[in-house]
């Protein structure tokens, strides 16, 4: 029985190591960090809004401590995300993806993806401005013709 527990623990550790490597390749940890940070900022804004009339120094200290405590919870989020990966992908699946990312084609894909990502925001912003103008023009035409 202890041997099975040791094998299971070793498999779990190996899976966790593979996931960490995958998260590094895909920048999942950074993406999750950004999302968690955005939610934290929303929470801080909500706390501030609901603390009208509070002592400014006490509120500032509370918000600083809140941020520290919130960030301390991030490993729990990463554990939950890891659990989702474990439910969907086998270790063999993850290892196959890692083999691709480790290959020349995978490295090129990752580097190309970073280049695409850099251009995506500018492309989307330009598109949004143009689409907004066109959509507004059509909307006002529809209102005027109604």
Structural class: mainly alpha
Number of domains: 2
Largest sheet: none
Order of helices and strands: HHHHHH
Low-confidence runs of at least 5 consecutive residues: 2-7
Provide the residue-averaged pLDDT.
89
Give the CA-based shape.
flat
For the secondary structure, the number of strands is 0
Q: End-to-end span in angstroms?
A: 77 Å
Report the total helices. Answer: 6
What level of helicity do the residues show?
A: over 70%
**Radius of gyration, Cα only, in angstroms?**
23 Å
- What percent strand? under 5%
Could you describe the 3D structure shown?
- The chain has helices spanning 2-26, 28-49, 56-72, 74-88, 91-102, 104-145.
- Helices cover 91% and strands 0% of the residues.
- With 146 residues, the protein is mainly α.
- Helix 1 runs parallel beside helix 5 (91-102), helix 2 runs antiparallel to helix 3 (56-72) and helix 5 crosses helix 6 (104-145).
- The protein has 6 helices and no strands.
Brief overview:
With 146 residues, the chain is mainly alpha-helical. The chain has helices at 2-26, 28-49, 56-72, 74-88, 91-102, 104-145. It is flat and about 65 Å long.
SSE layout and pairing:
Elements: H1 2-26, H2 28-49, H3 56-72, H4 74-88, H5 91-102, H6 104-145
Descriptive terms for the model:
flat, 6 helices, single chain, 146 residues, mainly alpha
